[in-house]
């Protein structure tokens, strides 16, 4: 609620920071980018995590050891993982470019083209956090009542029907939990993007948190940056509330 530049004297302005942000086109642009990246990355993580979790569930041996190996990317510090991925996707000198050029294929500028940069950011986030999704969903699948599974198999249900009609409805509270955790975490998407693209090229991968950093630590508008942090909290809480409402209404057959 203060107009506060770092090192200066704060001045109370009420909702002035919020009004300024809501009228700022760059805020809406960063919010659209955040929603796009969060939606794409969390959706991809859920699909891959569910597929891997069900594959582990179907294994008759070695599931625990394979689960530990799959979880290793999640253990790596995000900054270190981003530096590793930056080396892979670096233009001309990166690992992927070197391989493609060796086959006489001219690669795109992965981190310098808006579309490709967004794709790299989504893949980087998914690579690191899909193991968390896999671990939680795998644990949930193992809690499903075996009598329901056996009954469905006796009725001729295949793997797809068994997964979508029996197992997923049984672990819906867990799905809500893991999606909520990932959405909240993805909304504060910062370190990976900062290392890979720093919000570029231009503002193509500038999320709300990157914009908050720019306001607070480059422009030194601490009061405005704090207000943007509060807005980010409210937006992420609203997104999670909508997710819970939709899943709850679908569970009750209202959708």
Shape type: globular
Number of separate strands: 2
Which strand-content bin applies to the residues? under 5%
Biggest sheet strand order reads 1-2
Q: Determine the fraction of residues in helical runs and give it as a percent range.
A: over 70%
Largest sheet: 2 strands, antiparallel
* Head-to-tail CA distance between termini: 41 Å
- Run of helices and strands: EEHHHHHHHHHHHH
Q: Nearest-angstrom radius of gyration?
A: 22 Å
Poorly predicted residue ranges = none
Note the total helix count. 12
Class by SSE composition: mainly alpha
- Residue-averaged pLDDT, rounded? 84
Walk me through the structure.
It is a single chain. This protein has 255 residues and is mostly helical. The protein is 73% helix and 2% strand. The protein contains 12 helices and 2 strands, in the order ββαααααααααααα. The chain has a two-stranded antiparallel sheet with strand order 1-2. A hairpin with a 7-residue loop joins strand 1 (2-3) and strand 2. The protein is globular, with a radius of gyration of 22 Å.
């Amino acid at each position: 609620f203060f107009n506060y530049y770092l090192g200066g004297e704060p001045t109370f302005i009420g909702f002035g920071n919020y009004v300024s942000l809501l009228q700022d086109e760059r805020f809406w642009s960063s919010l659209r980018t955040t929603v796009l990246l969060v939606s794409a990355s969390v959706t991809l993580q859920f699909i891959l995590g569910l597929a891997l979790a069900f594959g582990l569930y179907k294994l008759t041996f070695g599931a625990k050891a394979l689960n530990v190996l799959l979880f290793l990317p999640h253990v790596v510090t995000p900054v270190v993982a981003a530096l590793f991925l930056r080396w892979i996707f670096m233009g001309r000198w990166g690992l992927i470019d070197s391989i493609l050029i060796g086959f006489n294929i001219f690669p795109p500028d992965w981190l310098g083209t808006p579309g490709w940069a967004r794709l790299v950011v989504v893949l980087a986030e998914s690579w690191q956090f899909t193991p968390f999704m896999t671990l939680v969903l795998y644990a949930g699948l193992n809690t499903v009542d075996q009598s329901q599974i056996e009954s469905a198999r006796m009725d001729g249900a295949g793997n797809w029907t068994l997964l979508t009609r029996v197992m997923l409805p049984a672990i819906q509270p867990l799905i809500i939990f893991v999606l909520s955790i990932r959405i909240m975490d993805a909304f504060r998407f910062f370190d990976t993007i900062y290392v890979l693209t720093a919000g570029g090229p231009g503002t193509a991968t500038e999320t709300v948190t990157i914009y908050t950093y720019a306001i607070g630590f480059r422009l030194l508008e601490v009061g405005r940056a704090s207000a943007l942090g509060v807005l980010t909290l409210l937006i992420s809480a609203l997104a999670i509330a909508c997710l819970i409402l939709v899943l709850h209404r679908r569970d009750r057959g209202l959708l």
